[in-house]
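User: Structure with adenosine-5'-diphosphate, tokens only please.
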Amino acid sequence: MSLAVGFDRVTVRRGDTDILRGISVSIPRRCVCAVLGRSGAGKTTFIKALLGLLPVTAGHIITKHGTLDEPRALAAHRHKTAAVFQDHALIDRLTAIENVQLGLAHLRSPWDPTPWPFEFRMAAAAALREVEMLPFAHQRVARLSGGQRQRVGIARALVREPELLVADEPFSSLDPILTRTLCQLIRDNVTRLGATAILVLHQIDLALEMSDWIVGLSDGQVLFCGPTSEFLTSSLSNIFPSLPRPVLARAI
Ligand SMILES: Nc1ncnc2c1ncn2[C@@H]1O[C@H](COP(=O)(O)OP(=O)(O)O)[C@@H](O)[C@H]1O
Ligand SMILES: [Mg+2]
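Assistant:
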């Protein structure tokens, strides 16, 4: 199995608490991996560490570019990775299409005074069409709803054609129909590009349906890491101990 990402006994401390506690995780390439866990389990911390946005206190994060403590490996990993954040991380004063184009900023010199190339605008428009936001291309994102902003964030990630797509609750402000459409869109893009997606999801049924691999976190530890086909009711009840039995039965 070739790995997209490996965590080798990784601890992440914030303040005086270990939020991730010596976790080891393997995520294969070319899969959709769902990260599951209750609120406060450490999912966002896991994603931020994986993006190199939070320092690791102990252990190593390994990608195909090397371990992320090496600056060159971290730079290559960032170049090939696209992220969708829970708070969208968009630039409010810019339009939707301008925000999506920024996904391609790494292909351009920051000092280039010329207008964005036509191909970049076309790629941004195509990504907006995929998330059903093309009619809002010239609207400032400050004026869009939470769900619309989230779709612009997804388009900005997809336009990069990333090797690794990492998203923290990318569907949290979307209705169930759009959630399913966009999850399928991410799946299709991952397959087309031979890429890997790591998605924090709070919809258990969606995770079970759409993922190939699951990482289940609880209290900063890994309770499950493996193929979705091997994920059992018992794994689910360990990760979500308070879920009533009928919900567990429906989810599996
Ligand atoms: N900046 C921080 N400083 C100290 N503790 C934090 C900080 N951010 C998050 N935490 C704590 O880390 C734990 C995990 O948080 P988080 O990774 O956001 O969980 P999740 O995304 O699963 O809800 C929580 O107990 C949270 O209170
Ligand atoms: Mg979170």
